[in-house]
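Quick start: read one record
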Amino acid sequence: MTHRNRPTLKLLACLATTTLLTSCGQGSPEAGHPNTAPPQTSSAGTAPSQTTSVTQASTPASTVPPSPPIRPTTANGLSLAAAEEFIRHYIDLMNYASQTGNAAPLLAASDAGCVGCKQYAGFATKVNAANGGLSGDYLERVAEVSELIRGNGGRLRGSAAVTVGVYTTKDSPSAVPATSKAAKYTEQVALSPSKGNWVMFEIELQDRR
C-alpha cells in the first residue's frame, strides 16, 4: 500500500465548484450609468455601506467548505443495488475528506474495525486541499462498480474501477511537491450490514503508480 508521498491515500472524489455571484445592491449605479452623486460619509469621513460591500466581495468563495455528501436514498437498505450506490457514496465521502480534512463523515460510514478506512481518514486529515497538501485533478471518479458477491456473516465483497487525473501532493508546507500521473485502477472493498444499511468493512488501498 504505497503511493509515493501518500502511502495510505487512495480514493479521492468529485468536488463541487462554488461560484461567487455578485449583484447590484440598493444605491448601486446601473450598468453604463455611473452614479455621479458623492457618497454619503460618516463622521469619520468614510462610507460604511460601501466598505462593508468591498470586504464581503473580497472573501474567496473557495474558502467556504462544501457540506458533507448526503447518503442518497438509493443507498439505503441491504440490496445489491443499494451496495453499489453506497460504494459510490463512500468514495464521495473520501473525496470530501481529501478536500476539507474533515474525515468524520467518512468514519461514520465505516465499520469500527476498518483498517483501510482509518488509514485514509488519518492521511486526509493531515494532507488535504484545504491546507494546501493537495492540488490539481486529485478527484476520484468511479467508472464502474462490479463483482458484488454476498459472503459469510451477511458481508458483501465487490470492486470499484476508479480514475484520477494529474495532481500534486505535499506532506508539509515546506515539502517539495510530488506529482502523480493520471491513472486507472481497481479498489477491492468489503461491506458489512449495520442497522439496516451497508457500511464499509474494509477497503484495499491500491497503488496508483
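The longest helix spans residues 80-100.
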